[in-house]
Amino acid sequence: MTHPATSLHTNEFSRRANSYLKHNIIQEQVVKKLIQNIKTKPKNILDLGCGAGAVYHEINWEIDKFTGIDQAKNMCTLHPRDKKVILLEQNFENENLLKNLGHFDIVISSSALQWANDIEKLIENISKITDNIAFALFCDGTFNAIYTLTKMPNFLPNSKHLLKILKKYFHIKHEKIIYRLNFKDNISKFRYIKQSGVSGGERKLTLTQTKSLIKNYPHTYLEFEVLFVWGKKI
Ligand SMILES: C[S@@+](CC[C@H](N)C(=O)[O-])C[C@H]1O[C@@H](n2cnc3c(N)ncnc32)[C@H](O)[C@@H]1O
User: Fold this and answer.
1) What is the DSSP letter of 140?
2) I need a labelling partner for 135 at 20 to 30 A (CA). Which of 54, 121, 182, 227 fits?
3) Domains and CATH numbers, the chain
4) 75 phi and psi angles, rounded to 5 deg
């Protein structure tokens, strides 16, 4: 699946790295749930879209090595560093890069895989370098009311489609959660969307569309659909 906002959004993450940390309320809850449900205490971890280190911060067991990949320089700058941490400022869809990293006890990714241009290929490549996965990603139920109102194409992946792909390679346990975040007014909602890094899509709205959306948005909340998957290779 290709979406036009992809090339934009990584620059966006870099540009908004500090502001992301203040507007990632949902992502914080997501990463906690994702990591709390990993029971195997894996020692050699690969984190795709590691950002400023949310996954690394949640790991509360002894590890040997933590490799994080993120193509946004300013996010990597905020990631904790120590002798166990290797940070690669690269595209996690780069097949050669993944192939040459060796084998991992687990590949984790929180709030990042929804940006993949070819999620099917990426999952296949991941299955070659690990026996275990833990992913949480935003799906196309996110900002549902906005997409319905504006009739904009939704580039986020569909959870059923994702599960179908994942089940080709992994025995999985999954959970889908709809989060609702309440705001005092519509302007704050759209400011949140802009700062949070969840959607690259809102930048495609014209000024008139944005104004109309701010006026007509029907709910006090924004909704986010998150798919959690924990899997073991078939
Ligand atoms: C919403 S942030 C999540 C960061 C962190 N995992 C967390 O839970 O807070 C998504 C991150 O994925 C990174 N990202 C998105 N697509 C990427 C790609 N193709 N290659 C590498 N990094 C990517 C972005 O730069 C950004 O830092």
Assistant:
1) T
2) 182
3) 6-140+154-180+224-233 (3.40.50.150)
4) -75, -45
- Taking residues 22-47, what's their average pLDDT? 92
Instruction: Quote the pLDDT of residue 187.
Output: 83
For residue 115 and ligand 1, the question of a CB distance below 6 A is answered with yes
pLDDT tens figures, 204-220: 667 787 788 788 888 98
Residue whose CA lies nearest to ligand 1 atom number 20 = 91
How far, in Å, from the CA of 102 to the mean position of ligand 1? 21
Q: What is the rounded distance in angstroms from the CA atom of residue 229 to the CA atom of residue 226? A: 10
pLDDT per residue as tens digits for the range 167-189 = 999 999 999 999 998 888 888 88
**Cβ of 27 less than 6 Å from ligand 1:** yes
From atom 22 of ligand 1, which residue's Cα is the shortest distance away?
Answer: 70
Q: Go through 192-228 and write b for each residue having 16 or more CB atoms within 10 A of its CB, e for each that does not.
A: bbbbbbbbbbbebbeeeeeeebeeebeeeebebbbbb
pLDDT digits over 186-202, tens only?
A: 888 877 777 765 555 44
Q: Does the beta carbon of 92 lie inside 6 Å of ligand 1?
A: yes
Residue 196 C-beta-side C-alpha neighbours within 13 Å: 23
How high is the pLDDT of residue 7? Answer: 35
142 lines ligand 1 (CB under 6 A): no
Q: How far, in Å, is the centroid of ligand 1 from the Cα of 190?
A: 21
- Helix intervals (H) in the chain: 6-15, 17-22, 25-36, 54-58, 73-77, 95-99, 119-127, 144-150, 159-169, 186-196, 207-216
Regarding the beta carbon of 68 and ligand 1, being less than 6 Å apart is answered no
